[in-house]
Amino acid sequence: MNIHGKHYRTIWPEIGKNGVINIIDQRQLPHSFIVEQLCTVDDVFKAIREMHVRGAGLIGATAGFGMYIAACKASDDSFMEEMIKAGEHLNSSRPTARNLKWAVDRVLAALNQVESAAAKRKVAFDTACAIADEDADFCKRLGEHGKELIAEISKKKGGKPVNILTHCNAGWLAFVDYGSATAPIYAARDAGIPVHVWVDETRPWNQGAKLTAWELQQEGIDNTLITDNAGGHLMQHGMVDMVIVGTDRTTRAGDVANKIGTYLKALAARDNSIPFYVALPSSTFDWTIDNGYDIPIEMRSGDEITKISGLDPSGAANTVAIAAPGTKAANYSFDITPARLVTELITERGRCKADKMAIAELFPEYAHL
Ligand code: MRU
To answer: What is the pLDDT of residues 240-282, one digit of tens each?
Structure first.
């Protein structure tokens, strides 16, 4: 992704400093672009929990590097005990994104392949880098598969811009590069297909308003910010050709957990015969469950609903109250879109129906789990 014309990934190790990782503090975007260094497992825990980094893929990559930081600190005598403890700690930072546990488990499994603490430290670094590289590569590849869908619609519309609605930020900022929902959009743009994106603001954290609109702007993609409640109206008036969203966890039967409000978009899309696509790298599948209602749904602080942050007229960052003092707020952060409302899943291996058999055909090595 390009920021002011310079290519960035969302996470990278500091060259020449063991156990130091760089991230972009997403709480400050779009008003300030601040690179933050993480040096301890607690730094990593806090960065995930408090959403300096967020989005399923990036949470996974950050957890992978968190395990590398833990390996740099662990003593030779109790190396694996300390690593298991660090993994448990990181796993408890956010409950819904599958990539978190997937990345921690992958580093732990790799550590078990070598003997000495020195070799384990090297393996932890190599595995964290591999997780990040693979995340970027899978997103790029799924973008090519999703591009075909945009190209078909563009052809039907005689080359007029394809209107794509997206929810939350399943973009570059939610991964290491490219994004999931945005990867087909970037690939379509690169292929010269005109696109326009309707960006849901995504209350209460406003990932759409703060991140997706800014990210698309940086890439020169035409986009319009809308309130979360506008999507249905636009669909009824023929102003949306397709919906593409990301996911924090998708069951092996195709039920999709994603940012709160995704389900309502899927319902509106179905009522208006608009295709609803979910883009994901395979690291987001939970191969252990069928039913989406078994996915833990994160509850965040009610303050995210009763208060709002931004720049005041003097240009200073500020938080103001929206609701009356003492207002009770329940902040459900994700919801489940049942597989029956999903037109297709877009993965790095290609597209498939959101059902158990079709998913298993694309990923046969996981079908037995
Ligand atoms: O709470 P967030 O910002 O981490 O939630 C992110 C989303 O819901 C994204 O849509 C999701 O991670 C899918 S794309 C990685």
So the answer is: 999 999 999 999 999 999 999 999 999 999 999 999 999 999 9
What is the value of pTM for the model shown? 0.97
Residue showing tokens 């809308």 = 226
CB contact set of 203 (below 8 Å; sequence gap of 6+): 228, 261, 305
Q: What CATH class is the domain 143-366? A: alpha beta
Please report the atom of ligand 1 found closest to the CA of residue 97: 12
What are the residue ranges spanned by the domains of the chain? 2-134, 143-366
DSSP readout, 230-248?
Answer: GHHHHHHTT--SEEEE--S
Q: What is the dihedral of CA 264, 270, 275, 279, to 10 degrees?
A: 40
Q: Which of 131, 12, 122 is nearest to 68 (CA)?
A: 122
Hey, which of 49, 51, 62, 258 would you mutate to test ligand 1's pocket, going by the most ligand atoms within 8 Å of its Cβ? 258
Question: Which one of 182, 205, 247, 278 would you pick to mutate in the ligand 1 pocket, going by the greatest count of ligand atoms within 8 A of its CB?
Answer: 247
In angstroms, the CA 129 to CA 239 distance is 41
d(CA 266, CA 340): 10
With a 6 Å cutoff on the Cβ, whether 258 touches ligand 1 is yes
Residue 19 has pLDDT above 80, yes or no: yes
pLDDT tens readout for residues 265-276: 999 999 999 999
Arithmetic mean of pLDDT, 293-313: 97
DSSP 342: -
* pLDDT confidence bin for 193, thresholds 50/70/90: very high
Fold of 2-134: Four Helix Bundle (Hemerythrin (Met), subunit A) (1.20.120)
